[in-house]
Amino acid sequence: MSSYELALQFNLDVMEKQNKSSEEIITWLQWFYEKAIENVIKNYNHVTVQSFADFQKKWEQNFEKYCGESK
Which residue in 5, 11, 32, 34 has the fewest CB atoms around it within 10 Å? Predict the structure, then answer.
């Protein structure tokens, strides 16, 4: 599991325990995604690209989950 995935899961767990709304979680997911992209661009190499690709799959699953809950 990449550091991106670990940070994603940790923060989602914390927000769920704090009973954050789906809208709050979606806003955070969008912000975190932007920061991850900035980091990949800043530290570009094959390891960060692969880590980001793994993270992106997890991120998309969570984004879809919370978007579905907010409807």
Answer: 34
